[in-house]
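Researcher: Please predict.
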Amino acid sequence: MAQEQWTSVDCYFNESLLPGDSVLDEVLRLSSDASLPAHNVSPNQGKLLMLYAQMINARKILEIGTLGGYSTIWLARGLCTGGRVVTLEANAKHAEVSRVNFRLAGLSNVIDLRLGLALDSLPKLASENIAPFDLIFIDADKPNNPHYFEWALKLARSGTVIVVDNVVREGAVVDRASSDANVQGVRGLVEMLAVEKRVNATAIQTVGSKGYDGFVIGIVK
């Protein structure tokens, strides 16, 4: 009953606050048809990312983990005029689907997709003097969360917002003895945040159509 109710509530808010969007519906359909994993953010979470970008007048956004580009499109819609999203994706098939979706959304001109392992792409990105980024969204393989966070700090400035998705793991994050590398990756991130004096952060639990999870949000001081 809990999951059914969470989904119903999400549907209610989405129907009330998110106008129908044929482009995003098609993006999800194309991703599903290509057998991409259903790990994209929910529509209301996507709009939250867009609102974050708009709140801080983001001109430069970094996303680690593209998948089918659904969250990327939401982020790009929140850019200031002349802004740019750089998104990193390790899987060539995912990148191919994403590029189709970006063209469908009319946003290819403001999205720079980099194919390759993020931990290889991030040093190259740092050398290009694109940083600092105004908003950084981390939603890739969880065991590497601590490494992605380290790079986020290197590519940030005072005031940069950092968001890390899927940190609750259906409550498993509290199990310090967990053998799940995803859980340990999140715990490693939290341990870093607990002592990192350059970032003011919190974590929020969420329930909804995507189940029980949550995210970290922090601001670089």
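Model: Helices lie at 2-17, 22-33, 43-55, 70-77, 92-105, 118-127, 145-154, 181-195.
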